[in-house]
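Late entry, written up from scratch paper. The run itself happened at the end of the previous shift, but nothing got recorded in the book at the time, so transcribing now.
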Amino acid sequence: MSSSTGIRAAGEIMDNTGRTALMVDVLLVDDHLLVRRAIRGLLNAQTERTGIKVVGEAASGEEALEQLSRLRPDVVLMDLNMPGMGGLEATRKALALRPGLKVIALTVEEDGPHVGWMLDSGVAGYLSKGAGEEELVHAIRLAMQGDRHVTPSVARKLAQTDSGEPDPMTRLSHRERQILMLLVAGKKPGEIAAALDLNVKTVSTYKARLREKLGCASDMELFRMAIDRGIMTPCPSSE
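Output as recorded:
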């Protein structure tokens, strides 16, 4: 905080109202270099005004987790669909490593179960990449205050969903969500078992449980349902 002499301490700036505000360090996670550069440029050009500064970037969930301990950011802007560990799993692990961390989903995904899954995981905001600069700054500030901002278009869709029949995807456990996304990505049972430290028989049990919960008679129906919900575009599989 600033002293009685009016001299600001290191790491502090004056906000729009003239009050002292702490600097906010941001880690930007997105697998597209141009997207990272654009967002970093927008935020860092306004650091003197907003107190928000991008201090690091990561192109994957794995890289984001490595950066956390080194950079110790206040906020992570997290994309969803990335090679390797996706945003959902990276968010879960990041919050387990740093309980006070603020993770804001920043993605093109406005439909499908991803929205609810990210909100359930404890994110401090959910923004569309179509959001403007001021909305992004507002979301970061709200996150630091302990509040959560959701892009209005996403919030409206959530309200419409809540008023209708519940989506069976919302009944899936975290592990079931993990396995479903890996299945739709074209991963074989052995690969899924290795990635999640399970045995192949356990993966098969989860697959059967997924089919039962989602009312699917076969793996093909399961895949089609997941794709229809916008979870992921499937990769060719040799199975």
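The first strand starts at residue 12 and ends at 14.
(Scratch paper discarded after transcription.)
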